[in-house]
Amino acid sequence: MHGQQEEEVAEPEVPKLPGIRITSPTRDEVVPVTGNSTNDGINNNSLLTVSGTSTDNANSPCEVSVILNDIRPYQPAVPIGTSGKQDYSKWNFTLTSLYGKINQGENKITAKLSCLASPVNLTKWYSVQVIGATPEQILQRDQQQQVLLQKQQQLIERAQANTEKINQTAMFVTIESHKPGQYVPIGTNLTISGQSSDNSATDCDVSVVLNSQTPYQQAFPADPLRTSDYSNWTFVFTPDYAVPKEGVNKMTSKISCLAYPNNFTKWSSLNVTGVSADRARLVQNQQQPSTSDPSNFSVPFSQTATSAIGITKSSIQYLH
Questions:
Q1: Architecture of domain 20-133
Q2: Which is nearest to 238 in space by CA: 187, 203, 195?
Q3: Rounded Cα gap, residues 48 and 54, in angstroms
Q4: 37-64: pLDDT as tens digits
Q5: Within 10 A of 1 (CB to CB), how many other CB atoms are there?
Q6: pLDDT greater than 90 at residue 217
Q7: Tell me, what's the pLDDT at 2?
Q8: Among 18, 85, 84, which Cα is nearest to 53's?
Q9: Is 295 within 8 Å of 275 (Cβ atoms)?
Q10: Which DSSP letter does residue 181 get?
Q11: Within the chain, what is the greatest distance between any pair of CA atoms?
């Protein structure tokens, strides 16, 4: 009839960039396995809800389906978006043993978004791997995680207590066994020693490195009966790690103290000069030293020593 307006029907809107994502379970999440019979000790009725999001809405001609371990056909998901009954912007699907079982070990869950479009339909997939485990395995894992959390909390409390004992500005570590520019024999063991601000009441340790050849090597308390007191410390460089080379050799000592939220660290370095054992012995005879160890002689030498003392903070290494 003239003047009567026909009701306009909105055309379906296909997303220009369709996308889909599984938000639960997450990648490598541990989930309960499902069994085939009641005699295998596994609950046949174990449920796993898969949920996610997509670019769909109530006006787009799209739908979501889910598959487990490539067991076809795809299973239709349930739209739970808020803009209408066909809104798959949020969706979920409950996996049961009636469709397929979660196996022990790796399982692949795939969600698919299918949109009607011309000239061809648009399809996107998204997959996650989950780890199937028995109730006993899940219980054991939960107990292990609880133990780790307890150890982590204990370490935090230990670090907090140690932080209160340490005057960070007064922290120090030094190498006392050698002087800057001192001659040392090359290619053989070299014993060094030094001092630090640590004592039996603080939670610190000392490590050393030669010519920046990391990792740092753990030093030892000079008094073997005081295993946690690095106020006086010692270390022997050996060929298994590194020994002095000819020319300039940089020795660095480091003190690291447990603290919260970050550890406290300081360094001290000096250069010594590597020479042949014969030359070191000759210098020894010329200077008439009080010891027969040629590595402990200081000689006039114009080389400038390098000394570097710095502060850094490195994250606490929690127990795993």
A1: Sandwich (2.60)
A2: 187
A3: 20
A4: 444 444 545 689 999 999 998 888 999 9
A5: 3
A6: yes
A7: 47
A8: 18
A9: no
A10: T
A11: 126
